[in-house]
Amino acid sequence: MKKFIIGTIATVLLLTISIGIQQGLLFAKPFPYDDEQKGLDTQIIIHLSHVVAENTPKGQAANKFAELVEKNTNGKVKVHIYPNASMYNDENEFQALQNGKVEMIIPTFSKMTSFVPNWQVLDLPYLFNTDDEVHEVLTGSIGEQLLNELKPFHIKGLGFWHNGFKHLTSVDHPIHTFEDLKGLRIRTMPSKTLEKQFEAVEATPIPISFSEVFTDLESHAIDAQENTASNIYSKGFYKVQKHMTLTKHGILGYAVLINENFWNSLPSKIQKQIMAAMKETTDWQFEQAVLMNETDLQKLEQQDNFEIYSMNNEERQRFKEKLTPVYDLYRASVQNNQILSEIEKIVSP
Ligand code: LMR
User: Fold this and answer.
1) 162, 135 contact by CB (below 8 A)
2) What's the count of helices (H) and strands (E) in the chain, helices before strands?
3) Rounded to two decimals, what is the model's pTM?
4) Which fold has domain 39-344?
């Protein structure tokens, strides 16, 4: 009897081992660790698409936001970032967000002005003088009012981020006075106010997607463009332009947008954790953007065959006056002039 029991146990054991080997359950290599396997069924993924390089104010802030979201939610929410227009570009990212093909995008507010005309106010030339003024406007009640205008599009605005002040670059001759802009084909972001700004100095504005600016400058399809030092450096525009003039004539900043259905599907605890990550990133981001533009301007100063000029105060004043009709056109074209009046109370004249 004892022999029979031992024999049966041994047979069962042998059978189990041989089936285990056949099925690859024994001696199989463990799966490589993949953090997406952990809690796969409950993990929430946010796909975030943007158009600039990672070493820029927006690219760095997106990375920081992703880190903080993961930390605050204890790994439950992961943000996958697609920089450099590798997923969607300027032309199709807003539609992709509306259709829920991507959960988050971070366009410049200028690129949103065809949907939200009141945001043109932020494109007005020489409206802001300092980064602190930009911070106060974009992170205060005015910023909130502007974000509320996204409601009809079923998009939630989480906040605004800053890049910096725009300057001009050109290829054939330097821009010392606004008269030097006459006749140039200048790339702009798609914004009526930006187009009118260049029409006011008799240049031809050409709206082009950011991902095409380098090749269009290289092929001389355009002569000039406006941008921040960080975008000019990180995208290598200095390799295909010869001159840069520090005009500081406008600002470039971003709206951090999330698909509203997706947002509403999140538990309120997660929403709060994401908003906390957003607030911390925003505070860090505004300072970081200023530092990054300073450093990138220094790097631009070291480039061969690339000259940087500052516009003297007298010329700057003339340029500013030349652009005042843009304000009249803006006032005539938007429904809400209240926002401009509120900004004018914050910025120094
Ligand atoms: C541009 O198109 O010039 C910039 O808006 C790109 C960006 O997102 O900073």
Assistant:
1) yes
2) 13, 9
3) 0.87
4) D-Maltodextrin-Binding Protein; domain 2 (3.40.190)
- Cα of 68 vs centre of ligand 1, distance in Å, is 24
| C-alpha–C-alpha distance, residues 2 and 133, integer Å | 90
Residue 337: its pLDDT value, please?
86
* Nearest-CA residue for atom 2 of ligand 1: 210
Atom of ligand 1 at shortest range from CA of 163:
9
Report pLDDT for 33: 46
What type of residue is 85? A
Euclidean distance between CA atoms 211 and 84, whole angstroms: 8
Average pLDDT, the chain: 91
C-beta 162 within 6 A of ligand 1: no
Confidence band of 251 (pLDDT split at 50, 70, 90)? very high
Helices (H), 99-209: 131-139, 141-148, 192-199
Mean pLDDT of 142-157: 96
Is there an atom of ligand 1 within 6 Å of 52 CB?
yes
Using the mean position of ligand 1's atoms as its centre, give its distance from the Cα of residue 111 in Å.
9
DSSP state of 29: P
Is there a contact between 210 and 127 (Cβ–Cβ < 8 Å)?
A: no
